[in-house]
Write a structure and sequence with these properties.
mainly alpha; 2 helices; about 75% helix; rod-shaped
Length: about 80
C-alpha cells in the first residue's frame, strides 16, 4: 500500500512493505549461505566440480543477509 503526504504525486511505500522485502531478502540470503556451504563441502570432497558457483552463492548470500539486516535496522530506527 502506498501512502501520500498531502501531494498525490509524492507517494512513499508503507513501512510494512519495506519490512516484508527486507525479511524476504534475509531469508533468501540465509538459504544462499546454507546451500553455498553445502556446495563447498561437496566440492572439497571432490564429489562436485562447481566450487566457484558454491563460493559465489556463499559470498552473495552473506552480502544479501548483511544488506537485509542494515535495512531492517533502518526501518526500526525510522519507526521510533
Amino acid at each position: 500500500m502506498w501512502h501520500s503526504r498531502g501531494n498525490p504525486r509524492e507517494c512513499e511505500p508503507a513501512p510494512c512493505d519495506s519490512a516484508f522485502g527486507a525479511i524476504f531478502g534475509a531469508s533468501v540470503g540465509l538459504a544462499a549461505i546454507v546451500f553455498g556451504a553445502i556446495g563447498l563441502r561437496v566440492a572439497y570432497r571432490r564429489e562436485a566440480t562447481n566450487r566457484g558457483q558454491a563460493t559465489a552463492g556463499l559470498v552473495l548470500g552473506i552480502i544479501s543477509l548483511a544488506l537485509a539486516i542494515v535495512i531492517i535496522i533502518g526501518i526500526i530506527q525510522d519507526s521510533c
